């Protein structure tokens, strides 16, 4: 099977079980931004791999980073499924609804676990710190944009199947988790969060 089909050369693409639409359609923008988030998380995992290699003599730190890497891997698989759901105007017909309450509750558990390791946040912080944390902050920002694009799509669908509320909640919790993880990664790698200062 060739990677190029030429069917999209006119600026349209086919939906999963649906019609062809413009490549800048709100549905394409929504699942395309989820795909972008997944790609950024791939960059996060690459940065984590480098950080793990530098912690070979520190098993506790190494294990914590590897656990984070495993969790990011889980999220990547879930985002792929979430993208498939968004790519179809009729996800129920093709049994594409995968993300639900258990995934959201698991993210909330991860948030609570991670926050328990961190000092209370008393002011805004700037994105950055260690290279891993900076990548996580970028993923968080793309996740927020994914959430906005999905909300736009949810508001625009009429005759199609509504977007599941769980999708929006999942992306919201995911961005929260990525935020606390960015702080925890800086803690693990000996970097302090940089507080925002009013200019």
Describe the structure.
- By secondary structure, the protein is mainly alpha-helical.
- The protein has helices spanning 26-53, 59-86, 101-115, 131-156, 165-188; strands at residues 12-14, 20-22.
- A two-stranded antiparallel ribbon has the order 1-2.
- Strand 1 (12-14) and strand 2 form a beta hairpin.
- The termini are far apart.
Query: What coarse outline follows from CA principal-axis ratios?
Result: elongated
Arithmetic mean of pLDDT = 89
The helix/strand order is: EEHHHHH
Q: Sheet with the most strands?
A: 2 strands, antiparallel
Low-confidence stretches: none
Q: Notable features of this structure?
A:
61% helix; two-stranded antiparallel sheet; 199 residues; mainly alpha; single chain
Short description:
61% of the residues lie in helices and 3% in strands.
What's the topology here?
Elements: E1 12-14, E2 20-22, H1 26-53, H2 59-86, H3 101-115, H4 131-156, H5 165-188
Antiparallel strand pairs: 1-2
């Amino acid at each position: 099977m060739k990677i190029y089909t030429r069917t999209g050369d006119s600026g349209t693409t086919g939906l999963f079980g649906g019609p062809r639409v413009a490549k800048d359609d709100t549905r394409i923008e929504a699942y395309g931004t989820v795909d972008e988030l997944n790609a950024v998380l791939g960059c996060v995992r690459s940065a984590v791999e480098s950080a793990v290699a530098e912690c070979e003599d520190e098993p506790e730190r190494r294990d914590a980073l590897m656990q984070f890497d495993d969790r990011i891997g889980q999220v990547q698989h879930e985002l792929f499924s979430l993208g498939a759901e968004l790519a179809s105007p009729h996800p129920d017909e093709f049994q594409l609804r995968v993300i639900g309450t258990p995934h959201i509750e698991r993210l909330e558990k991860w948030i609570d676990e991670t926050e328990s390791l961190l000092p209370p946040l008393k002011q805004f912080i700037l994105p950055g710190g260690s290279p891993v944390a900076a990548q996580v902050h970028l993923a968080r920002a793309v996740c927020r944009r994914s959430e906005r694009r999905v909300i736009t799509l949810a508001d625009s669908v009429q005759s199609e199947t509504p977007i599941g509320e769980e999708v929006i909640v999942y992306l919201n919790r995911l961005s929260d988790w990525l935020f606390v993880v960015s702080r925890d990664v800086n803690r693990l790698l000996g970097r302090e969060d940089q507080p925002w200062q009013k200019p």
